[in-house]
Design a protein that fits this description.
The chain is an all-alpha fold. It contains 20 helices and two strands. It has a two-stranded antiparallel ribbon. A hairpin with a 3-residue loop joins strand 1 (177-179) and strand 2. Helix 11 runs antiparallel to helix 12 and helix 18 (386-397) runs antiparallel to helix 19. The protein is globular, with a radius of gyration of 22 Å.
Length: 449
């Protein structure tokens, strides 16, 4: 091959990597946008269906996180065996339709079912995306692409709050929306529809991507069964402590995302239409800035021992949340509340930037989908489900206290922060003992990173 041909091929591969990373990041962005539009709309939804705080916690927990986690297991199994691009495209279109369906619900039960559909659609996004990126790229390029992909929650969450508040204000001003067959719908219902339908277009775009070839040296001679996958996972204490710590990080993250808008409204710091834009700007700007600055956490680390020192530094970052949460009990102005929110987002973003790295560096190719599914299961069933639900239940037990939600919020954020810090630190003290099938690929990634 001539130098010019080699250069053209190299340029083509770079542009292909950029395109794939961009579309997958956009899918993660829209998934989080669809996911986080509900917290902004909680108060009008709560009044429309006369929901209690416990029911709100169940809506964000049982209806979404539990089904999201359970669906991740079979979808992860499919990712390890079948066409990953097709799985990602179908999932994106499915959650878009389900989100739009939330806007047509006429009861709490229907909304519960629609949120379940949203969760099942979104569950295939990360297993397919992490697997695709791991086969398309290696070394430092893989770490960069993963970091870009993990910006999705902050892009999506910020857009949900900013665009959601603008759309809510607009549709409130015109008195809702009238649709063919559906008739007149309220402003909050119109927001769900506007946010959900673009998923159909994004799903079609992802379907045009080419499936990357799997990197599996000697795959025909090794056991890639689910039993072998579980053996690899449970045989690695570093991964197990990381999984346990991550679920408490997820718990704190979803407590913040689910309850903070309602907390600001109840404490008199604003309304749903006024707090959405500043919260969205903070979520977007601080989240992205923290994702970028967190790259300094891997500077001057030994490439042969990258993961453990990184986890130790992440544990220190997570520990900052504890005094922050305690200080929030003294907050009495909207400005101070926004500062607290920004600091919390910064610490969570630093961790989530690297949350896929242990799986990508340790777990063999044909097992990553299922291990990612298990990771999502532990995070969402025990983290994203129990955390918001616990705040709602604790708040309902203190109905006589006008600051009951604030007390419940601070308590559960502190508990999650302490547990996350301790477990991630314990993970950093371990060394990887998992049996790697594609060790040559992992070693190459470490050498080039």
């Amino acid at each position: 091959m001539s130098d010019s041909e080699h250069g053209q091929e190299s340029t083509t591969q770079v542009w292909r990597a950029v395109l794939v990373t961009g579309l997958l990041t956009l899918s993660f962005t829209f998934s989080f946008m669809d996911r986080q539009i509900l917290p902004l709309l909680l108060e009008p939804v709560r009044h429309a269906f006369s929901m209690s705080d416990t029911q709100i916690g169940m809506l964000q927990g049982l209806a979404f996180s539990t089904f999201y986690a359970c669906a991740a297991i079979p979808l992860g199994w499919m990712v390890d065996r079948y066409h990953r691009v097709g799985i990602a495209a179908v999932c994106v279109a499915a959650w878009g339709v389900a989100t739009a369906a939330c806007g047509l619900c006429a009861s709490y039960g229907q909304l519960l079912v629609a949120r379940t559909g949203t969760a099942i659609g979104e569950a295939g996004c990360s297993p397919a995306s992490w697997s695709i990126l791991s086969d398309l790229l290696s070394g430092r390029a893989l770490l960069r692409a993963t970091a870009v992909y993990n910006c999705g929650p902050y892009l999506g969450g910020g857009m949900a709050l900013i665009l959601g508040s603008i759309a809510l204000r607009y549709f409130t001003g015109i008195g809702g929306l009238t649709l063919p067959f559906a008739g007149h719908i309220e402003a909050w219902q119109a927001v769900f529809i506007v946010v959900g339908l673009p998923g159909l277009i994004l799903g079609a775009l992802i379907l045009t991507l080419r499936e990357p070839k799997r990197r599996d040296p000697g795959v025909l001679d090794v056991d890639i069964s689910t039993r072998a996958t579980l053996k690899v996972l449970f045989g690695c204490s570093q991964l197990m402590f990381f999984f346990a710590g991550s679920l408490f990080v997820t718990s704190g993250f979803y407590i913040l995302l689910t309850w903070f808008p309602s907390l600001m409204i109840r404490e008199g710091f604003g309304t749903a239409s006024t707090i959405g834009r500043p919260l969205g700007v903070l979520f977007l700007a601080v989240g992205l800035a923290s994702c970028f600055l967190s790259q300094f956490l891997v500077r001057k680390l030994d490439n042969r021992d990258l993961l453990s020192p990184l986890l130790k530094r992440l544990a220190i970052v997570l520990a900052i949340q504890i005094p922050l949460a305690l200080a929030f009990a003294l907050v009495d102005t909207a400005t101070a509340a926004y500062w607290f929110y920004a600091c919390e987002i910064a610490t969570f973003a630093a961790f989530t930037t690297f949350m896929g790295s242990p799986i990508q560096l340790i777990v063999p190719n044909r097992m990553r989908g299922r291990v990612t599914g298990l990771y999502l299961l532990s995070n969402n069933v025990l983290g994203a489900t129990l955390g918001p639900a616990a705040v709602g239940a604790l708040s309902d037990r203190m109905k006589g206290n006008q600051h009951g939600l604030e007390i419940a919020f601070v308590t559960m954020i502190c508990v999650s922060g302490i547990c996350a810090t301790v477990l991630i630190y314990l993970s950093s003290t371990r060394r990887t003992t998992a049996n790697r099938i594609d060790s040559s690929h992992a070693d190459l990634a470490l050498e080039n990173s």
